[in-house]
């Protein structure tokens, strides 16, 4: 680039001198003109080289800093274009670092979360095939193998979906849908997974143009999480805003926008459970992307003593001095907001 700048400056300075010299002194001998032109050409080239270095000093300095990986700090004499370029490089490096951290988290997930059920399944299979187990114990081992396999397939499916939803838009095929019938189906399907001490309620009516398969999946994800962490009650409701899943569990440990991200590089606590790096927020991310594909969003709030308060903070622990039946009930509520719900 410096050579091109030097050539341009040289031509701009040398050509006018040639024209002026020839027209002003037509009687000067050719040898004298030639020597004069060589001197002028040398001076023009020298000026062009010096000026190009001055003009490109900020660019050359930025190139050196980029090569050494230290280009975040601007200089007082940086022009606006260099400042913009420096900012672009900094943003690009930040995104690359984030992607690398997420890739490492994804690999950690493969090593840890996929390896654990595979090892358990291997041990159970070995016991099933080599030990003289009674029929009742063999059935119990077989059920454990099935549970581990289901857990493994669920995790693989969630990782695949999260990766696909992150890389491309979610394709929806909307049809008029009875939202009450949809949540009734989800509740009926998950009834077998509901612990004896839990109660699963269904409430509300409404219709909307949605993709029933994707919406069923989103509501199922939220309901499974609610059933996992609820103390006594889980409620699925159709409201004018969309579909709400409410439970009396501990709630989220931080802002939803931070937790609903795929392949986080750090372990995260969600609803009181510690997730390993890479798996935190997979389900919430999938639900949020499905809601966004329908033109809505996923919202989280806490309801305290019958009043909902929107918050991004972890729930405060109850007062230990109060008896259990006198403590206010905190509810965790996720709202899968839809653009238009009709009665």
Automatic annotation (TrEMBL):
Histidine kinase domain location: 109-317
EC top class, as a word: transferase
SMART domains xref list: HATPase_c, HisKA
Keyword check for Transmembrane: yes
Cellular location(s): Cell membrane
Reaction catalysed by this enzyme: ATP + protein L-histidine = ADP + protein N-phospho-L-histidine
Renumbered residue ranges of the record's region Disordered: 301-327
Membrane topology label: Multi-pass membrane protein
Matching Pfam families: HATPase_c, HisKA
EC number: 2.7.13.3
Transmembrane segments: 31-51
UniProt-listed Gene3D superfamilies: 1.10.287.130, Histidine kinase-like ATPase, C-terminal domain (3.30.565.10)
Keywords recorded for this protein, A-Z: Cell membrane, Kinase, Membrane, Phosphoprotein, Transferase, Transmembrane, Transmembrane helix, Two-component regulatory system, Virulence
Keyword Transferase: yes
PROSITE patterns hit by this protein: HIS_KIN (PS50109)
Molecular function GO terms recorded: kinase activity
Protein name as annotated: histidine kinase
Organism: Deinococcus seoulensis
